[in-house]
Design goal:
Layout lengths: L6 E4 L9 H16 L3 E6 L9 H13 L9 E2 L4 H13 L3 E4 L3 H4 L29 E4 L5 E6 L3 E6 H4 L3 E4 L7 H11 L4 E5 L6 H11 L5 E5 L1 E3 L19 H11 L12 H11 L10 E3 L4
Parallel strand pairs: 1-2, 2-3, 9-10, 11-12
Antiparallel strand pairs: 4-5, 5-8, 6-7
Length: 300
């Protein structure tokens, strides 16, 4: 892979098969990178190893192939990258930016809740731990009075006061597994990702990643958060809400995802997934994307 090129990525968690919501994110990411003449990578985000399933990874990669979304280079797996996360954590520790936290989930239930339903860490262990928990502590990064501002390509200007809206956040869990925020930040840097196109459900966590980028002195990519597909109950389509796996026949679902993204429809139904992908890359338009955070999923 060469330098100075647009590089996008799709990074699913292998906890179940791809569904319509996954396809929307994958298709948007793929078309955005390819339309810019760039590369598109696939990364399996199995940092939460207890929840990851090898059969789910195989199903995800098979579905991407069947749906005509071909990737560049080798598939990267977070479970194989622990030394890189260890190094990043050591750099944060050397800068006195992380500390051990013994707070339990039950104790965190007393913390205030932010607008998206997350608990705001009140800083209980910031000045040291006064009780033992058998040496199994989470690691939190200090945010102080940091304010992170950025402009999302689709969602516009964003601003987050980390201390008030999030608090010091976890970068390594008490069970030893690395948290998503640190892993994804390190991975995007190591893979040279320049443009991140993903669902708007991850918009609120982006300032945490940008903050870590600053702490680790690494570049900030461009962000574009597309609408999330929701069901009739207003819930995000996910494995937890019973979203159906993608059907074997790809073209109808590809057209449904394309319509969901409000892109120009082809005059005739493409004969195959490959034909659709070729058309979609040429027709892709950022300007046509709906600048909202969620949209009802179509009935297919």
């Amino acid at each position: 892979m060469s330098g100075n090129v647009v590089r996008g990525r799709f990074a699913p968690s292998p906890t179940g098969p791809l569904h319509f919501g996954s396809l929307v994110a994958a298709l948007a990411s793929y078309c955005d990178a390819r339309a810019a003449g760039g590369e598109w990578l696939v990364r399996i985000e199995d940092v939460d190893e207890p929840r990851s399933r090898p059969d789910a990874e195989r199903a995800i990669l098979a579905a991407l192939t069947r749906y005509g979304l071909s990737w560049d280079g080798d598939v990267v797996r977070q479970s194989e990258r622990t030394p890189h996360y260890e190094d990043a954590l050591a750099r944060l520790r050397a800068a006195d930016l992380v500390y051990a936290c013994a707070c339990t989930r039950k104790e965190m239930e007393l913390a205030p809740v932010n607008p998206i339903g997350e608990r705001v860490y009140p800083g209980t262990c910031r000045k040291g731990i006064e009780r033992s928990r058998d040496g199994h502590y989470a690691q939190r990064v200090r945010v102080g009075d940091a304010i992170v501002s950025f402009v999302d390509v689709l969602q516009g200007p964003q601003r987050q006061e980390l201390g008030r809206e999030v608090g010091d956040f976890i970068v390594r869990r008490a069970d030893g597994l690395f948290a998503y925020q640190l892993a994804v930040t390190v991975d995007d840097e190591l893979q040279g990702v320049t443009s991140i196109v993903r669902g708007a459900d991850l918009l609120a966590s982006t300032p945490r990643q940008i903050y870590l980028q600053g702490c680790l002195d690494i570049a900030t990519p461009e962000y574009l958060h597309v609408p999330v597909a929701i069901n009739d109950a207003g819930e995000k389509l996910s494995k937890q809400t019973g979203a159906a796996a993608l059907p074997h026949d790809p073209v109808p679902m590809l057209l449904a995802a394309w319509r969901f993204l409000q892109q120009p429809m082809p005059e005739a139904t493409p004969a195959s997934a490959a034909a659709f992908a070729s058309y979609a890359v040429g027709a892709w338009s950022r300007a046509r994307l709906p600048p909202v955070r969620m949209l009802p999923a179509p009935r297919v």
